[in-house]
Amino acid sequence: MKRNKEQNYLMRDLGIVALSIILALALVKTRALDGILSAAQEATIIGSFLAGMFYISVFTVAPAIVVLSELISSLPIWEVALFGGLGAALGDLLIFRFVKNNLMEALILWLRRHKEKKVLTLFRSRWFDYILFAAGALIVLSPLPDELGLALMGVSQIRNVLFFPVSFALNFFSILILGLAARSLF
């Protein structure tokens, strides 16, 4: 019974991931994403927020960087970083909740089934949590897409209450650094 339930969760999760990849590829191929981000540029707060949401994914980071750079060229950097950081943190939270609730549970069940006691002990260590969290935070802070960093942070078992402010701060500074680099180059 348990194995069927695990397989159902795994198939559901794989289906969601596959659907999101197909949707992202369709947005990129049809150039619909370009239209959405171009329209968002007109409204600065909404544009920064939406570009921030797109800033987190491997499939949408390139057009989001272009939009954020354009917004930064004509608006105060802190304003774009603030609203872009909020959008990115909201997008990160959606991904984080999926990773934390589903992926971690599936990983622990798999480790228990395969009798990986040493690995399970490692996962329960506070130091391991801190290392995973720090590694994930560095990835989120970088202009790299956030998915791997969010997975590491989800495995680190950070509480949801702490995640949003940490994600916001990391994305705020990431967009701020991007803005400073864009201003110095152009």
UniProtKB/TrEMBL annotation:
Parts of the chain that traverse the membrane: 14-33, 45-68, 80-99, 119-141, 161-182
Keyword Transmembrane attributed: yes
Keywords for the protein's UniProt record, in alphabetical order: Membrane, Transmembrane, Transmembrane helix
Name of this chain's protein: TVP38/TMEM64 family membrane protein
Native source organism of the sequence: Candidatus Falkowbacteria bacterium RIFCSPHIGHO2_02_FULL_45_15
